[in-house]
Amino acid sequence: MSDARGFSLLERFELKYHIPVEMTDDIGRFIAPYCEEDYYSKITPGGFYWITNLYLDSPKWTFLSWRKAQLLDRFNMRVRCYGEHPKQDGTFHFEVKRKLGSVGYKSRATINGENPSFVWENPESKWPCKTDKDRKYLHDFIYKTTAYNARPRLLTQYKRRAWFGLNEEYSRVTIDTDMRFREENGFDYSVDPAYMWSTGLPRFFERNCNAVLELKCPALQVPFWMLDLIRHFNLKHGGFSKFGNAAAEWKRVYENPKDFRDSRLPQFAGDFEDSKEVFR
Questions:
Q1: What is the DSSP secondary structure assignment for residue 72, as one 8-state letter?
Q2: Which phi and psi (to 5°) does residue 230 adopt?
Q3: pTM as predicted
Q4: Which superfamily, per CATH, for 3-279?
Q5: Does residue 267 have a pLDDT over 60?
Q6: d(CA 79, CA 102)
Q7: Residue 280 pLDDT exceeds 70
Q8: Helices (H) and strands (E) in the chain, counts
Q9: What's the whole-number mean pLDDT along residues 195-202?
Q10: Are 191 and 197 contacting, i.e. CB atoms less than 8 angstroms apart?
Q11: Where are the beta strands (DSSP E) in the chain?
Q12: Contact, 128 vs 112, CB < 8 A?
């Protein structure tokens, strides 16, 4: 078992492919000699478990604008937890995902037993961190929120089935589907499916696809079985941003409020006026 499974900092290469979710079992059988399902897939019927991410950004969507401009060095920020209906005081992972050229870097700090708001409301000495590395990366996370005026913006969810490579220091295969989101301007992780907007929409996928397959590994250590997987299923590389697509739908709601006459409408219309340039 790779030590990277309980990571604090990862450097990795990520390849994304659009697939029909019906391919999942075939892919699982193909990689079975080289991988094992991760813990959450093992304990979840059907193998797909829920991930909930709260993305942060500035009032003018700074991180999103970096992505749209395809800056070679950029990052985004989120607070992740697991389950469709997360506990408000469960386990939370503060993550910074940096993209430097074609290589991704991901840092993670974990707290237990408190809502994420706790770290802004209490001194560092009281943060319920698991390790000193968690404290270090959480300190960096809080620094970035201050430097870039980042705050909660969008709560996203999706279902994932995932595998870890058995023989590499770090290799991972994930399949994500059923993406959805809502606006969130605090740290409320409650979810009512009736109040979530779908981003698992045909216009975000290649034709006849509804899931995203990701292959993740060190940039200079792509396992041979990943290359065989790509060739065997004739996979075509394609991008997909859960945060970017959710923000695009957020914008669409604001631009066409008459088309969305229900209580799911976001409440902070003033932010849209400040954000128009980002979405052009």
A1: S
A2: -60, -45
A3: 0.89
A4: Hypothetical Protein Pfu-838710-001 (2.40.320.10)
A5: no
A6: 23
A7: no
A8: 8, 10
A9: 92
A10: no
A11: 9-19, 35-37, 49-57, 73-82, 91-100, 103-112, 151-165, 172-183, 197-198, 211-217
A12: yes
